[in-house]
Amino acid sequence: MTSESQYLLVIYRASRTRSEPVSPGHVADALDRSPAAATEMLQRLETRGLLEYEPYEGATLTAEGRETAEELYETYAVLSQFFREVLDLENPEAEALELAGSVSPVVTERVAETLLEGDAAESIDDDVVQSPLEGS
C-alpha cells in the first residue's frame, strides 16, 4: 500500500522541478496508482492540512506539508544512497521510497554518519537521487 509519505515525497520533488500545482495524473503515474486512488489520497492530505488540492488542477503543499516533505526527503535521500553505496541494491530509490516514512530521525542521522565515515558517500543531493520520484 502506498503511504501518505510517498505522496508527499512525489509532490515535493515535482514541485521543485516543475510549476505547482502538481497534477493528480503526475502523482498517479509516479506511484503507479490509478487517478482515482491518487485523487482520494490528495483529498485526505488536504483534510490533514498538508496540501491544498484543486480538482483537475492539482496539489500544492502547505507550509506544514512542505516541512514534513523536506524531512521525508532527507530520509529518502540518505536511505537511497545507503542502499546504493553500501548494500548495492538494484533499485535503491524504490526501496528508499517504501521506507522513508517509517524511519526515525535518529536512524537517518546514524545512516548518514555511517556513509560519511566509510567514505562510501558522495554528496547526498538531487543529482544522486533519481527515479522513481522523477515521474513524467
Automatic annotation (TrEMBL):
One of its GO terms (molecular function) is transition metal ion binding. It holds the Pfam family Fe_dep_repress. Residues 117-136 are annotated as: Disordered. The lineage of its organism: Archaea, Methanobacteriati, Methanobacteriota, Stenosarchaea group, Halobacteria. This is DtxR family iron (Metal) dependent repressor. InterPro entries: DtxR_MntR_Metal-Reg, HTH_DTXR, Iron_dep_repressor, WH-like_DNA-bd_sf, WH_DNA-bd_sf. Coiled coil: none annotated. Residues 1-62 form the HTH dtxR-type domain. It comes from Halopiger aswanensis. Residues 119-128 have a biased composition (Acidic residues). Transmembrane segments: none annotated.
